[in-house]
Write a structure and sequence with these properties.
By secondary structure, the chain is mostly helical. The protein has one domain. It has 4 helices and no strands.
């Protein structure tokens, strides 16, 4: 892949990962299932499509970290909502 395509896929993946992390915490009317999680899957797919040597670069290690943080925050938010909702 050329450098332009790798940069484009990196930035799209990063934007989708950040969107997933932010929207994943808002469990009003199951919004994350329809608005957040598809962007998380898209971000993961774009990250996996990067070249293997490109995935090992330091900047590309942030994408799975943001996805993991978003997923954990989403689960914590959902569990808190289910346990403490009256």
């Amino acid at each position: 892949m050329n450098k332009y395509k790798n940069n484009l896929m990196f930035y799209l993946s990063l934007i989708c990962a950040i969107w997933f992390a932010l929207v994943g915490m808002v469990w009003t009317f199951w919004i994350p299932l329809f608005i957040g999680y598809p962007f998380g899957f898209l971000s993961y797919y774009l990250w996996k499509k990067l070249d293997k040597k490109e995935q090992d670069r330091k900047r590309n290690k942030i994408i799975p970290i943001v996805l993991k943080i978003g997923f954990v925050l989403s689960l914590i938010s959902l569990i808190g909502l289910l346990l403490f909702d009256k």
